[in-house]
Amino acid sequence: MDLDKTTHTASAEAYEIIDIGGSRVGQSCRKALDEQFFQHRTGRCPFVDDMLMSSDAGLAQWSDLNRLPNYYQTSEEITLLEKHGAAIAAHILPGCSIIDLGSADTRKIKPLLDHIESRACAVTYYSVDLSRPSLASGLAKLATQYRHIKLVGLWGTFDDALEYCKSIASPRFLMSLGSMIGNDRWDDSIRNLTAWASLVGPEDAFLMGIDSHFDPDKIWASYHDEGGVFERFLRTGMAYTNDVLGVEWWRDSDWTLGGEFREKPLVHAFVFTAVRDVVCPAAGISFKAGDRIECYEGHKYTLDEMDKQFAVCGLKRIGRWKSPDGDIYEHLLAKADSV
Ligand SMILES: C[S@@+](CC[C@H](N)C(=O)[O-])C[C@H]1O[C@@H](n2cnc3c(N)ncnc32)[C@H](O)[C@@H]1O
Description:
Layout: E1 4-8, E2 15-19, H1 25-38, E3 47-48, H2 56-65, H3 72-89, E4 97-101, H4 110-118, E5 123-129, H5 132-143, E6 149-155, H6 158-165, E7 172-176, H7 186-197, E8 205-211, H8 216-223, H9 229-245, E9 255-262, E10 266-274, E11 278-280, E12 285-287, E13 292-300, H10 303-312, E14 315-322, E15 328-335
Parallel strand pairs: 2-6, 3-13, 4-5, 4-7, 5-6, 7-8
Antiparallel strand pairs: 1-2, 8-15, 9-10, 10-13, 11-12, 14-15
Helix pairs in contact: 1-9, 2-9, 3-4
């Protein structure tokens, strides 16, 4: 692979960012739109992948959104990692490569890295993200705090990261915090997790943060803040489809936003509904008033359902920790046939 590397070594700031496919993120987003928005599956309405919500502008808004008082998904997982960070970090040994899938502003990972640093344990922290500015600002913050942790940004998609991680030697400690993996429709979750499980060798581990809340009021309040921060974030994602498609087809005033629950499993989905006909021949887009676009689904699986996912994907659970404030869990996984 011919990869573009940028190294930042100014004073205390030392990290590098490797372009593992990030400069082609627009094409990856286009592919996701082709597969789920234009050629959506029978019985499903057009769906916009979470990748579209993670533009540079979208992730800048994400940092505000995850600090909203009712957005328990971030605050409870941080509390969990603060409380159980030492026990989790005990599985990370010197020489380990930590790979954080979808790191965003790196706020969550800090309690774990603090424990590792306090043991003077030399490791490399790879943070994977779609947005280069988000990677750079997250790593710059971490770089001022750690002496024993080498910091590397992997700029690209999860598919790019899966390929790149084959070149990173074991022991590897993979992390999917914030229900990034295992939080899709069942078949999609199994397909994604199986792909990552194929990377997990006998010396590796995989930490998965999963939201197993089932209280509709708490979930609803987390996604529907009064100030409309979440709505602005999603609308920024929809506007980004204009950049990806190269056509100004999306106009905020054409669409209203709502949310809905589905059952078995419990899913919260956001739904944009057209308030008038929306037609853009240049993009191959034609909606009637009342047509829907779905995005940003949150699937809430039980602990048993998660264990089933792990088993189907060739993984076994070797540890589990719960948030003191709610039902956010970290599941620690190993290859199923390892001792
Ligand atoms: C909602 S934020 C969650 C961040 C963090 N893991 C947490 O728990 O707070 C989603 C992050 O995943 C990244 N992301 C989403 N889809 C991705 C994909 N297909 N490939 C790479 N990164 C992705 C986004 O860039 C963003 O940083």
